[in-house]
Specification:
By secondary structure, the protein is mainly β. The protein has a domain at 62-123: OB fold (Dihydrolipoamide Acetyltransferase, E2P) (Beta Barrel). The chain has one helix spanning 143-151; strands at 53-60, 66-76, 83-93, 104-109, 117-123. 7% of the residues are buried. InterPro entries: NA-bd_OB-fold, Ribosomal_uS17, Ribosomal_uS17_CS.
């Protein structure tokens, strides 16, 4: 133990942070500043809703209150970087046994119902009735439409 104790009169630049006057900061010491600490506001953080819903096709509906849904997604190949179709089957909860093989359903993430069922199958909206963002669909009438409305009173 006596080897680990240093004499009190020994002064090295390594002990006091490089300053020979003894006022230097140690690398392990906490920095002190006279600047006020910023107050953090306790705002609720928004929840992240990434990959909470998926869309797929029902491939099996023989089980009671359960459907097997195949979800197809495009992913780049690890070596060739070509986009390939990746298929995965999920077990989804269908409480009323509504869906048949071939139906397009939307999967919503819910609490686990069993070991493999963590999704709820809901009817997917029609692909034709989805709101497509087109340049003329901003809700603002075009100049030609405004002139027609003004001339029709």
């Amino acid at each position: 133990m006596w080897l680990l104790q240093l004499p009190s009169n020994l002064s090295t630049p390594f002990l006091n942070g490089g300053n020979s006057n003894g006022l230097g900061l140690n690398r392990l010491s906490k920095p002190t500043s006279s600047l006020p600490v910023a107050q953090t506001h306790s705002l609720p953080l928004p929840s992240i809703k990434a990959m909470k819903t998926m869309e797929g096709k029902v491939v099996c509906s023989t089980n009671d209150k359960t459907v097997a849904v195949e979800v197809v997604r495009l992913a780049p190949h690890s070596k060739y970087k070509k986009r390939i179709r990746m298929k995965k089957k999920y077990q989804a909860h269908d409480p009323e046994n509504v869906f048949q093989v071939g139906d397009i359903v939307q999967l919503r993430k819910i609490r686990p119902i069993s070991k493999n069922k963590t999704f709820l199958a809901v009817p997917a909206p029609d692909r034709n009735s989805r709101n497509r963002n087109s340049p003329g669909d901003l809700g603002i009438p075009l100049q030609s439409q405004q002139q027609e409305e003004q001339s029709q009173p």
